[in-house]
Amino acid sequence: MPARTWVPPGPYDLHRTLGVLQRGPGDPAFAVRGGEIWRACRTPQGPGTLCVAARPADGEVAAEAWGPGAEWLLDRLPRLLGEDDDPAQLTARHRIVHEARRRHPGVRLARTGLILESLIPSILEQKVTSDEAYRAWRLLLQRHGEPAPGPWERLRVMPDPRGWALIPSWEWHRAGVDAKRSSAILRAVRVARRMEEAAAMDLADATRRLTAIPGIGPWTAAETLQRALGAPDAITVGDLHLPKIIGYALTGRRGTTDAEMLELLAPYAGQRHRATRLILLSGITPPRRAPRFPVGDIARL
Question: What span is annotated as the signal peptide, if there is one (predicted)?
Fold first, then answer.
């Protein structure tokens, strides 16, 4: 069981930095226990489990890992935790952004270095509610993943590319995943090596690599690369809620479009995803006027 430590260069918020990797409550590949964050993933060296905990008294973050992918995970621990990220690159142009950064100085952008790990759940989140996507991810990992190495039996490692390709059509249906999304996942895993190469590219090239696959558009690419690359400018376009939240937080107006959101975020060019994260951390959202969108379940059809 190898272990490592990392000393953050300043204030550090472990849970908000790594929390974006969790795909909803009950994510089989991610768990929080006390002050520890547990993450099970499939690395180029095989399955691995990582346990990370902050030690404020020592001013460091400690990690342990298990499985064939343990050394790979620990070698990339500083990048995962945001060592290469520079929050100072953002200059606050709005009071809300300034206040959010003041209140959350330890938030950094995590960089997993793994594409499929973020791409597949992002595809599952296309055009459905978060609850539907989280349920699909949970069911698919529980039924087709494998037990994660290490002491926590609940954790599951997602299937390898061949394992995803062998999931029968009725299992996708049972998980509530329609043919459009399952087909996009299957196309991606057939060229898994080409997809994973994007982890070493800049944002523009990585986006082109991902969106060359039918069924993967700018929304899915941005959601993937925010996590895999820790890309500070990977702004999500095409989201149902994000433009409305950004517009309301920055102007107090409702009904902001994608184009208007991009105009509002133009002063943060190069840091638009970071600015968005800070705005979301402020908790300011437009008051709800309509009932929550109903959750569908195609598995019942």
Answer: none
CA 14 to each of CA 76, 84, 147, 238, 283: distance values in angstroms, whole numbers, following the listed order: 16, 15, 25, 29, 19
For residue 170, what are the contacts with CB-CB under 8 A and spacing of at least 6?
A: none
SS percent in the chain: helix, strand, coil, step 5: 45, 10, 40
CA distance 25 to 23: 7
Q: What is the pTM of this model?
A: 0.94
Task: Give the Å distances, CA to CA, from 240 to 24, 97, 130, 176, 269.
Answer: 18, 22, 11, 20, 22
Question: How many of the other CB atoms lie within 10 Å of CB of 133?
Answer: 22
CA atoms within 13 A on the CB side of 258: 8
Both tokens of 99, joined, read: 């206040």
Q: What angle do CA 204, 281, 16 make, to 5 degrees?
A: 75
Q: 3 φ, ψ to 5°? A: -140, 155
Alpha helix (H) ranges present in the chain? 14-18, 70-75, 77-80, 95-103, 116-124, 130-144, 161-165, 169-174, 179-190, 192-197, 203-211, 218-228, 242-251, 258-265, 272-281
Cβ atoms of residues 133 and 124 within 8 Å: yes
pLDDT tens profile 118-174: 999 999 999 999 999 999 999 999 999 999 999 998 999 999 999 999 999 999 999
- How many C-beta neighbours within 10 Å does residue 35 have? 12
Residues 6+ away with beta carbon under 8 Å from 193: none
